[in-house]
Amino acid sequence: MTNQLLRFTTAGSVDDGKSTLIGRLLYDSKSIFEDQLEAVEASSAKKGFDYVDLSLLTDGLKSEREQGITIDVAYRYFATPKRKFIIADTPGHIQYTRNMVTGASTANLALILIDARKGLVEQTFRHSFIASLLKIPHIIVCVNKMDLVDYDEAVYEKIVEEYKGFSSRLEVSDIQFVPISALAGDNVVNRSENMTWYEGATLLHMLESVHIESDHNHIDSRFPVQYVVRPHSKEYHDFRGYAGRVAGGIFRPGDDVVVMPSGFSSKIKTIEFGNEKLEEAFAPMSVTITLEDEIDISRGDIIAKPNNHPKADQDIDLMICWMNQRPVNLNTKFYLRHTTREVKAVLKEIQYKLDINSLEKLDNAEQLQMNDIARIKLRTAQPLLFDSYRKNRITGSVILVDEGTNETVAAGMIV
Amino acid sequence: MQDKLNQDVTIEPGVEMSQYYLSHLKELESEAIYVIREVVAQFENPALLFSGGKDSIVLAYLSRKAFHPAKIPFPLVHIDTGHNFPETMEYRDWLVNELGVRLVVGSVQESIDKGRAKEETGWNASRNALQTVTLLDTIEKNKFDAAMGGARRDEEKARAKERFFSHRDEFGQWDPKNQRPELWNLFNGKKHQGEHFRVFPISNWTEMDVWQYIHMENIPIPKLYYSHEREVIVRDGAILSTSPWLKLKPDEVPTKKIVRFRTCGDMPITGAVESDADTIEKIIAEVAASRKTERGTRADDKRSETAMEDRKKSGYF
Ligand SMILES: Nc1nc2c(ncn2[C@@H]2O[C@H](COP(=O)(O)OP(=O)(O)O)[C@@H](O)[C@H]2O)c(=O)[nH]1
């Protein structure tokens, strides 16, 4: 019962075999129920296939089934005795960068699929770049359809070399490679007998053993206050607890803390969870903190340490992904959501757009379109309490919300 | 019934703690509590949809943890089909009292009497679809702007794409093509007048996670989930409990079987499984070995391959 949770996302261009691979992982790890399998067998037969099309297992909504493509992020679950897995299944279609960004935002790991016959394609660059932009700590590159290239080691090695050459420009420290056939099952869960030249681990083994303990920041203490708990009861008349989820570092009773933005300092009295009293709390634990002193604290404040606290500023530099059909121009105003705080913000400057295939910077952009990635400057109505996204994915991320439609229109990573 | 929240305990930092990572159950628990707190912070008048099933029980329990030592700051809403298992009702009333929380009941019978909903006829008639009308009426009448539910993404294909914060238009409808992207843990609960949200704090839990959590936390659950002797009939492969609402076909003869339920919904259509699992440990072992999804025992999803999606679009949970 103490296995860890690994969240991963999958990316590949259409027909690289993503759905088949996910189906294979679910099937070989025995995560598919009899009635689901029966339904897929029936659909496969109806379509005239002579094999069970495992990709149908992850098939989504009716309209997508009609169009034959996946159009959104879907979440899948499976478990092995070692770990529980959450897959954010995102489409490979070119105009859906936003979905991959969405899936990548919560992932510890990205699976990138490459068709062995085609080698690296535009989407491979695109998806790898997004993984690096979103600071997914681990990447596994799956060279798929090895059965269609006679399980040839040379084909695999060439792709690995090319990928390594290109990825040296990205900021991902942990990249592994595996040659697979999602359709036949080679090296997915079971070792391939067709590729004895491959000495590495199977894909599932990699997923089970990748080191994720350091994916959260356990150094810089950050506690965004989410809600103030005031029981108003006789028994707990003076109780005032600050509920929230630790975003970084470690908090212990007795620690000296400083509350931002007020700058007041105090000491942690207790860290509570339900009616348990905890000795320490770290990311991503939801707890309630009480302090020795009565100070005015509300939602959106951050509890940090006197010698280590987030920056406070109204001018914010960000990389953003524009996610809405309607383009955006300079001086547009938004609601900005960051940790548990909401402020108004205005788009002050588009420094450059990024061509995510060549990583080239395009200057003089006045407007951002759907799926554009750009470096921008925002001005906020009140100071934001933040870290760089590189330092902390929780205190370094924002979303922008349209003032009129209330839609989430952009994802931002603070530089 | 034992209940961990009634004892005061101090957790010593164990091996797991000093390594600074959480077990999957603790991480899912923390995520769900974060979402529940976010709902209370972002909405004016939230509610928790309580079906009496294990998922909504876990949700109620998580809510208590989230706000302890304060009381849960929102009511439980029960959409009462009038066709409930008596065990569900007994449990509901016990829990409401235990939590000290307000209960709001939306009655399907009342919707039928008022002509807002039309009773189905035929052998497999159910009030499941009618719940949608009553639910939407209850939300409107009480001006709830967020309704939390215990739905999980692993339950059904259409649910795999649901967000934690699921936006509904003025008609309570879900548009799967026009969902807001949901990034990191930054939930966008902004809405226009008349719109509301459904929120699913345990989206990322599987059936197994729910059972393991119930076990870990010692959460009391309705007796229905444990193996017991019951008078049943077998219809189209489904084991159905006899009840005043189950019309017997001429050739159907009730027999006694040792069964338990994996979900507890509308009594005439919720199928039982033959089982002698009479403890949580045995239930977990059974779920682990089981080869059928839990919804597989619900007659309503079998009607068509996309039955769930169709109902979701029209405002069902
Ligand atoms: N020969 C072979 N075919 C594969 C393999 N993986 C996937 N396919 C086939 O490639 C096609 C596209 O696969 P699918 O999983 O739907 O791709 P997606 O668009 O990336 O989800 C299907 O016809 C699969 O059967 C593989 O490893 N070997």
From TrEMBL, chain A:
It holds the Pfam family GTP_EFTU. SUPFAM superfamilies: EF-Tu/eEF-1alpha/eIF2-gamma C-terminal domain, P-loop containing nucleoside triphosphate hydrolases, Translation proteins. Its EC number is 2.7.7.4. It comes from the Bacteria. This is sulfate adenylyltransferase. GO terms for molecular function: ATP binding; GTP binding; GTPase activity; sulfate adenylyltransferase (ATP) activity. Gene3D superfamilies: P-loop containing nucleotide triphosphate hydrolases, Translation factors. GO terms for biological process: sulfur compound metabolic process. Keywords: ATP-binding, GTP-binding, Nucleotide-binding, Nucleotidyltransferase, Transferase. Residues 3-216 form the Tr-type G domain. It comes from Pseudochryseolinea flava.
